[in-house]
Amino acid sequence: MSAADIGLIGLAVMGQNLVMNMNDHGFNVAVFNRTTEKVDQFLASAARDSRVTGTHSLEELVSQLKAPRRVMLMVKAGEVVDAYIAQLLPLLEAGDIIIDGGNSLYSDTERRVAELSRAGIHFVGTGVSGGEEGARHGPSIMPGGSAAAWPAMRPILQAIAARAGDNEPCCDWVGNGGAGHYVKMVHNGIEYGDMQLIAEAYHLLLSSGFDYPEMQRIFARWNEGVLNSYLVEITADILGTADDDGSPLLENILDAAGQKGTGKWAGVSALEHGIPLTLITESVFGRCISALKNQRLAAADRLIGPQSTYEGDKEMLVSDLEQALYAAKIVSYAQGFMLLREASTANNWDLDYRAIALLWRGGCIIRSVFLQDIATAYENNEALDNILLDEFFVEAMTGAQTGWRRAVVAAVECGVPVPCLSAGLTFYDSYRAARLPANLIQAQRDYFGAHTYERTDKPRGEFFHTDWTGHGGDVSSTQYEV
Question: Which residue from 91, 157, 254, 296 could staple onto 62, CB 3.0 to 4.6 Å apart?
């Protein structure tokens, strides 16, 4: 007799912990892994004495499932997902559901939703954030895809999700097609930005003579205020962790950061949509340049920078950095929601930005205290173009910007790279500028390529060309979108 509520394929760390989370909430789970020995090991260890059923083939897995059959993939994104879908299709029936819980590219999810719908199968692409601990005890879950699958998935996904506010699940339907994975991609882009911003603050403190116990106390104190967040919290823990010899463990970790691609995808999508995702994109480039370790070592012996170290008031630097981190983090989230807004319009997703902010309050990596303020901003104005224009954030940025500017200046004078702190500030100054020098760029484009320009004394949408050299003629090039 079929008894399992859901089947899960892929017993790596995230898969195993999601299974045990489902088990804790009363669901019967059937599991399968390509290396079937891992199934037996899981049943003999973490899943021992649980309701989890182990299977050694996809046929056996599917045979254990109640109708409609729900199969969740926790495998490597890309070709592996497609391969499992191809193997599952002959085993499933119309109305069954396949859920991809990995970090898949949203356009792949769009394609899979369309392809599987023709076979009568519902496909759900869901972002899952929270790492190992979140998967085990409550992640943030961002499902999207075939809306017809949501009623059958909702009881399971909302049961295992993190809770925030008045015990609200950090899981709700995001939208059709690739909406769920797109929202997760933007979440990860913001995560990249947050991590780089925190690393820059650490770097400036370290370069200014602060020792590890001091920095641990600083981050712990910051986590009690406006910077309260998961990433600031764990940074304090990391700074206070010693290696086997008693030295700070962080000093023995190589300064070359890895990445799995979601931050890059966010940057590429921003370029495609024309959204200035500057801070988040700089965080991706920050990881890229960190990976050039050998070149940096060679350059350190050849290229000269400032010889000075910070000699100002150290307590003021700590205060300024707190304000800089706060303001730059707000910019990072603002840019992320700008991208969500543009993608929602382009793809007809009708995303609920307030609901997305609420999904991120618990379980996920970027959970922070001011996500509730973002939700409130969209509650006050559903049509808000940018959270920076909400009164709460106007006041926050006004109060933080003086310290932010001083912190960036201090870093520049000391030769400490702060690409995201400075990119955030540049975005803020550009966004609030009534006038930018793009008029000169338009004149240059018209001069060398006859690309035309608009005039300040004429209505938008009228284009003009000047014969700058006197022998260029009146023919203009086709228009480029501004």
Answer: 91
Residue 292 neighbours by CB distance under 10 Å: 12
Per the annotation, the verdict on 191 as an active-site residue is: yes
Nearest 10 degrees: CA dihedral of 77, 351, 395, 281?
Answer: 30
Residue 30: strand pairing partners: 7, 53
Q: Is the pTM of this model over 0.90?
A: yes
Token digits of residue 200? 């820059």
Give the helix/strand (H/E) hosting 70. Answer: strand 70-73
What are φ and ψ of residue 292, in 5° steps?
-85, 50
The residue to which tokens 């899960």 are assigned:
8
Q: Is 184 a catalytic residue?
A: yes
**Dihedral angle computed from the Cα positions of residues 150, 154, 157 and 160, in that order, rounded to the nearest 10 degrees:** 180
Q: What is the pLDDT of residues 258-311, one digit of tens each?
A: 777 788 999 999 999 999 999 999 999 999 999 999 999 999 999 999 977 888
CA-based nearest residue to 51, from 30, 66, 37: 30
Catalytic residue among 59, 76, 79, 191: 191
- Other Cβ atoms less than 10 A from the Cβ of 94: the count is 9
Catalytic, out of 38, 184, 264, 329:
184
